Every structure is written in C-alpha cells, then in structure tokens.
Amino acid sequence: MNIVIAQSGGPTCAINASLAGVFTAACASDEIGMIYGARNGVEGILHDHLIDLRSVLDSSEQLDLLRRTPSTVLGSCRCKLPQLEEDDRPYRQILDCLERYEIGAFFYIGGNDSMDTVAKLSAYCTAVGSKIRVIGIPKTIDNDLMYTDHTPGFGSAAKYVAVTMSEIARDSAVYNLPSVTVVELMGRDAGWLTASSCVLRTTGETAPHLIYLPELPFSEERFLSDIRKEQNHRKSVVVAVSEGIRLSEGGYAASAFQSGADDAFGHRYLAGVGKYLEDLVRKHLKCKVRSVELNVMQRCAAHLASKTDIDEAEQIGSAAVNAMLGGAHGCMMAFVRSDSSPYSVTVKTVPADSVANRVRLVPSDWITESGNDMKPEAVDYFLPLIAGELPPVMKNGMPVHLRLPEMISG
Predict the structure, then answer these.
(1) What whole-number distance in Å separates Cα of residue 65 and Cα of residue 399?
(2) Which residues, 6 or more positions from 401, have their beta carbon under 8 angstroms from its beta carbon?
(3) Rounded to an integer, what distance in angstroms lies between the CA atom of residue 315 and that of residue 20?
(4) 233 vs 168, 178, 228, 230, 368, CA distance in Å?
(5) What would you report as the CA-atom Rg of the chain, rounded to the nearest whole angstrom?
(6) Residues in CB range of 355: below 8 A, 6 or more apart
(7) How far apart are CA 87 and CA 64, in angstroms?
C-alpha cells in the first residue's frame, strides 16, 4: 500500500520528529510503497497537493536534520470537517484523492482538533466500506489530550519555559526595589505548561513565586493578597500565569484585552492576561511591574529541545506505523507511563473519538490548597519530560533547519 502523512495545528519542536518516525518505520516495511506528505494538513489532501517524501528525505543526514527542525516542514492548517450529515462533500473529496494515489493509510499528526478530523474521517471510511486506515499521532505543547500520559512537543516547551523563567528571575532581581514580573504562558483550558515552571525548585530557584492555572477560578482580590504576602519575603516577585485563567463567573479574566474573535474550531483567540495583571498591580500596589508574554517562542525553541521529547516523538510515530500494519484504525497513539524513577513509557492505541473535543486538566490534587502553587507530585511528573539535550545543527553560528522544496501535486 501507499501511505500519506500530514501535520496539523500549532507547531512544536517535536512534530517533525514524529514525521521522521513514521517515515523511517514505513521505509523499513515491505508492505508500504510510496510515502506521501500532504501540504498544510488535510487541506493538502482536499486540494491534491502531495509530495513524494522518499525523494526529499533521501539520506540519514536529511532525516537527522528533520528531527532537529522545529515547526511543521509539511505546513499546517486549522481545517474543521463539517458533520457528515450536514455536508459530505469534503469527505468524498478526501476519499477520492486517497483512492487515486492508492493510499491505504493516512497518518495525521496533531492535537485535539486534529483528532476530531481523525475520528470523523475514520468513521466515514468505515461507513462507506473503504479499507483506508486513519491513525492519529498526538502533538501539542498544551499537553491536554485525554488518555495519554503526555504529548510530544510538551516536554520541549516546558524546558524552554523553565529556562526562560529562570533567566527572567535573574533579570528581575538586579535592583533593590519592590517589583513584580508577570509571565504569561500558553494554556487555554488547561495549565500544564504554566504548572511545569515549578521544576525550577529542583535547582534551588524560588521563582516562580506564584502560579495560576485555568483549572481554578481567578480572583483579583486573592491575587493582590498573594502578591502582598510574597513582598513580605522578597523584593522581586515573579508570577507564572496561563493565558486562559477565568473568573468565578466563567469569563476570561483578560477579556477586555482580547479581540473576541474565534478560530475555525470555535476557540477564542487569547492574549492580554499579562497586561491585565500588570495594570492591576500598578493600580493597587504602586510598585514597579512589567509583564512578559512568551507567545509563540514557547512552541519552537529547538535550541532548548528536550531529547526525551524528540526521541519519544519519533518513537510514537514509528509505533503508529506498526499499529496500522497490525490493523489499527480510527485511533490515536498514546503514552502509558510505567514509572517516573527510573522513567519509562510504552505506547498504546486509544479510540480517536474518545479524545476529540475533550480536555485533560492538571490534576487538582497537584495544586496547593492556596491555589497558587504546585505540589511535589507535579515536579515528579514534569522532570523526566524535559530531560536531555539535543543541540541543533549549527552553521556560521546559527541553527540550520530542513526546508522542503515547493510541493507539486503527484
């Protein structure tokens, strides 16, 4: 059979390592012929825009560079398939393309919304009697997919956050005057990335001194009280906060700083919580304050990639091919943690429709009773995921990334 691989959703440091894992395992199988890549996710299949990956990933050096290249070399999309009963045209169009290229399996590397596509498309293939298998491979720095211990991409993002937070803490402590630094981190509904900043405690760092997640309602009064208490112990207070914190009535805390626009999947574009809290501190505490929004830098900082993250991303991509050859369909690959010390994981499959449109939250028993910090159990969970370094390939003092040529149909 021939296969096709696509990438979707927000970029990460590890998504190309999963592509490398699928490609390498497919090359090793006598059952697989052509290996196609679809440009810009499922849109590449809808628009018949595929590339022969064997022709461009033609050496071990290219594959190694692919593993170390951040973001999506095939391009991405945020394309939501309609409900089948409302409009079956995209489904027929996708199936027509896959059949013309004699494709027997479609591997989709992505997050929650991508698993929605996997669930819908696999159900359609089954309904019309197609033997094409659809497999989801997890990816998201948000770490919020159900039924997997963690997601590829998260470990590298968490490592970047920890390193950057420690450097911000050093910068903020140089002056002998009261100051507050608010660091805004990604996390719409779940605060995994913000929570992971607690790993700094293992290096003797006290920052971040306060951590706020979307899992708990946010209170302005409690936040200001927390700051005042911290200022009794230190001049410089560093705060880590998720972009998606909500007030007790359910609205986003920083709604006044947001555009109000939604993406194709109905998700609100979030930003501004750092500025919101900066204004709050300036108004009520009258001290030096600034906010730092890490924004997209969290996603693709390959110079600080976690080796564990990259290795596991490749591992789960390879496992997806083996699962497909064993008959798997309509599923997502998932990690099962056997132990944290020594750390070990295995890979299994879970139904894609059980993952799609659901969110895995940070466990409430990992959050302190005060609601503004993490317990040691969280540190134990996060530490193995950021372990190890994978330095980028350098040339003239700068990192080198793999760039695929312009893709031409067929």
Answers:
(1) 10
(2) 65, 68, 69, 70, 302
(3) 9
(4) 19, 11, 9, 5, 19
(5) 22
(6) 112, 115, 119, 136, 145, 146, 147, 332
(7) 42
Question: Which among 206, 106, 164, 190 is positioned nearest to 293, based on CA atoms?
Answer: 164
**Residue 281: both structure tokens together:** 């501190």
With tokens 């994978």, the residue in question is: 390
Express as a percent the part of the chain with pLDDT over 90: 89
Q: How far apart are CA 188 and CA 252, in angstroms?
A: 10
Q: Which of 113, 116, 142, 144 is catalytic?
A: 142
Pairing mode of beta strands 331-340, 343-351: antiparallel
Confirm if 330 and 119 have CB atoms less than 8 A apart: yes
Cα 380–Cα 384–Cα 386 angle in degrees, nearest 5: 115
Residue 258, pLDDT above cutoff 70: no
Would you say residue 220 has pLDDT above 90? yes
Length of the chain measured in residues: 410
Could you confirm whether 58 is annotated as catalytic?
A: no
Half-sphere exposure of 18 (CA within 13 A, CB side): 33
pTM listed for this prediction = 0.94
Q: What is the pLDDT of residues 11-25, one digit of tens each?
A: 999 999 999 999 999
Instruction: Please write down the HEC assignment for all residues of the chain.
Output: CEEEEEECCCCCCCHHHHHHHHHHHHHCCCCCCCEEEECCCHHHHHCCCEEEHHHCCCCHHHHHHHHHCCCCCCCCCCCCCCCCCCCCHHHHHHHHHHHHCCEEEEEEEECHHHHHHHHHHHHHHHHCCCCCEEEEEECCCCCCCCCCCCCCCHHHHHHHHHHHHHHHHHHHCCCCCCEEEEEEECCCCCCHHHHHHHHHHHHCCCCCCEEECCCCCECHHHHHHHHHHHHCCCCEEEEEEECCCEECCCCECCHHHCCCCECCCCCECCCCHHHHHHHHHHHHHCCEEEEEECHHHHCCCHHHCEHHHHHHHHHHHHHHHHHHHCCCCCEEEEEEEEEECCEEEEEEEEEHHHHCCCCCCCCHHHECCCCCCECHHHHHHHHHHHCCECCCCEECCEECCCCCCCCCCC
Amino acid at 26: A
How does 38-72 read in b/e, with b if 16+ C-beta sit within 10 Å? bbbbbbbbbeebbbebeebbeeeeebebbbbbbbb
